[in-house]
Write a structure and sequence with these properties.
The chain contains seven helices and ten strands. It is α+β, with helices and mostly antiparallel strands. It has a domain at 4-138: Alpha-Beta Barrel (N-terminal domain of MutM-like DNA repair proteins). The chain is globular, with a radius of gyration of 20 Å. Residues 89-93 have low confidence and may be disordered. The protein binds a DNA duplex through residues 1-3, 6, 34, 58, 73-77, 101, 104, 121-126, 167-168, 172, 175, 177, 184-187, 230-236, 275-278.
Length: 287
DNA sequence: CCCACGACCTGTGGGC
DNA sequence: TGCCCACAGGTCGTGG
């Protein structure tokens, strides 16, 4: 679920509550998510102060004053929500993760500010780790990641170089986090539609002019989605439990059989499978 | 090297 | 109403 805009929205919602806060208690409700929690996880977090909450690709990074960074990936259904003490659905109690089944609340971080942060993840494809901050960049999670698409490090030249002579189709290539970091199935479909590029085109055959459009389309769709608080299909919520609303702006994702939204395009949105995932596109304007 | 596919896990929505 | 299948925002590993 959560792609870059959703993770960034969660980061922005959590940051005011977590930056500068000290963790006074940590409740860990099971030994693992997708992978085991690291050894002594709760003990290594308890007493730590979060100095900054950052994001790299789809990872949330909490910089701790202990020299370690708490790394969290939300997988498909992971969500972090805040709860102010005493303001839960039941007065005086925590509900932990608005709208989520509490049996999937796997971790609760209690701060010294009267605020707790709960991690809820029904499918448990998410994972967390504690990594020495000084060596974060060398860690396998991060060493191979491509540039942040909203940073100056990402440009048309990034794609020109990464796609040169690449035979893999452009859709699957954009999902490769080593080329550009943070895109997922929704925003790749939407960016390709904005840039009028057929998802089955070999990456190496996309023209420089199309790659320029694609670079701009990736930026614009991500920026607009962040402004909208991300996209909620099912599970995703912002940190305060609200729904995102960028899903109302989808032009192709989940819109099979709808008429193409491009002005003056007579096409119809179609669905196909690439790399085992649904691709939504217009076969007419995405030449 | 490339690609397709299954695995991980649970929930939901559609069709019958 | 109930059951079964397909499918879901992500990644990783295997085997052809």
């Amino acid at each position: 679920m959560p792609e870059l805009p959703e993770v960034e929205t969660v980061r922005r919602g959590l940051a005011p509550h977590l930056e500068g806060a000290r963790l006074v208690a940590v409740r860990q409700n099971r030994p693992d998510l997708r992978f085991p929690f690291p050894d002594d996880f709760a003990a290594r977090l308890t007493g730590a102060t979060i100095q900054a909450l950052e994001r790299r690709a789809k990872y949330l990074l909490a910089r701790l004053d202990t020299g370690e960074t708490l790394v969290a990936h939300l997988g498909m259904t992971g969500r972090f929500t805040i709860e102010v003490d005493g303001e839960g659905e039941t007065p005086g109690q925590f509900h932990y993760a608005a709208g989520a089944d509490p049996k999937h609340t796997h971790l609760v971080l209690v701060t010294d500010r009267g605020v707790s942060v709960a991690y809820n993840d029904a499918r448990r494809f998410g994972y967390m780790d504690l990594i020495a901050t000084a060596r974060l960049g060398e860690h396998p999670y991060f060493a191979g990641l491509g540039p942040e698409p909203l940073s100056d490090a990402f440009s048309t030249a990034t794609l020109v170089s990464a796609f040169a002579a690449r035979k893999q189709n452009v859709k699957v290539s954009l999902l490769d986090q080593r080329i550009v970091a943070g895109l997922g199935n929704i925003y790749v479909c939407e960016a390709l539609h904005r840039a009028r590029i057929h998802p089955e085109r070999a990456a190496g055959d996309v023209t420089p002019a199309q790659l320029k459009r694609l670079t701009a389309a990736i930026r614009s769709v991500l920026e607009e989605a962040i402004t909208a608080g991300g996209s909620t299909l099912r599970d995703y919520r912002t940190a305060d439990g609200a729904l995102g609303y960028f899903q109302h702006s989808f032009k192709v994702y989940g819109r099979e059989d709808d008429p193409c939204a491009k002005p003056r395009c007579a096409g119809v949105v179609r669905r196909m499978v690439q790399g085992g995932r649904s691709t939504f596109f217009c076969g007419v304007c995405q030449g």
